[in-house]
Amino acid sequence: MKVLITGTSQGIGKAIAELFLQKGHCVVGMDREEATIVGENYSHIVCDVRNELPEIPDVEILVNNAGTQNEDDIDINLKSLIRVTEKYGVRKGIVSVLNIGSASGHTGAEFPEYCASKGGVIAYTKNVALRVAQFGAVCNSLDPGGVLTPLNDCVVNDPALWDQIMAETPLKRWATAEEIAQWAYFLTVDNRFCTGQSIVVDGGESINSRFIWPE
């Protein structure tokens, strides 16, 4: 299938693109940075999703991964995600749309605009699911907690902060980008019935109630 993935130069987006390529799909990557993936079935468009979007015909799977943290979050994470989806995803021929959200959209536990932008993604996902159902397509959001990507090096490499984070995470680790990519592939290729849902993959952090009681 023809797959369009935004934000493919590093982290989760790069891992998702590489998995789709391994599975034999044709991948178009879009990022404001140059390509870091080389492959016969991979093409790369240097483009800021806030700007004019290029024509890309016949997209069957759309993965909205491009995002930022504490940098024009609502414009990039939400408004641009909507623009990309309306252009490439809400149309006849689409099979699946996946929005990469965040567990913070459910918990509110991060920068204010970041949480607001990801909360908006949750609501918009439901809206799109209703509208692409006429094409037999599905739309969901995949909402990770902590993921081992370059964006998070500032806390991963700080022993004191890392100890505090692990105290809040029942599984005592963060996901790899490759693990998130597996979820993305399942939700867009294997899944044909789950739609309008927001799947939290955070190692149990958002369910940690920290209940304290005398022994």
Please characterize this protein's 3D structure.
The protein is of the alpha/beta class and 215 residues long. The chain has a single domain, classed as NAD(P)-binding Rossmann-like Domain (Rossmann fold). The chain is 37% helix and 19% strand. The protein has 7 helices and 9 strands, in the order βαβββαβααββααβαβ. The chain has helices at residues 11-22, 73-88, 104-107, 112-132, 153-156, 159-167, 177-190, and strands spanning 2-6, 26-31, 42-46, 61-64, 96-100, 138-144, 147-148, 175-176, 198-201. The strands form 2 sheets. The chain has a 7-stranded parallel β-sheet, sandwiched between helices. The protein has a two-stranded parallel sheet with strand order 7-8. Strand 1, helix 1 (11-22) and strand 2 (26-31) form a beta-alpha-beta unit. The termini are far apart. The model has no long low-confidence stretch (mean pLDDT 95).
Number of strands: 9
The CATH topology assignment is: Rossmann fold
Task: Look at the structure and give the mean pLDDT.
Answer: 95
Rg (C-alpha, Å): 17 Å
Per CATH, the architecture is: 3-Layer(aba) Sandwich
Summing up helix and strand content along with how strands pair, one would put the structural category as alpha/beta
CATH H-level superfamily title: NAD(P)-binding Rossmann-like Domain
With strands numbered from the N-terminus, the spatial order across the biggest sheet is 3-2-1-4-5-6-9
Instruction: Note the main sheet.
Output: 7 strands, parallel
- Number of helical elements: 7
What order do the SSEs take from the amino end to the carboxyl end, as H and E? EHEEEHEHHEEHHEHE
Tell me the strand percentage band: 15-25%
What is the top-level CATH class?
Alpha Beta
- Approximate shape: globular
Q: Note poorly predicted spans.
A: none
Residue share in helices? 25-40%
- Report how far apart the termini are: 56 Å
**How many separate domains make up the residues?**
1
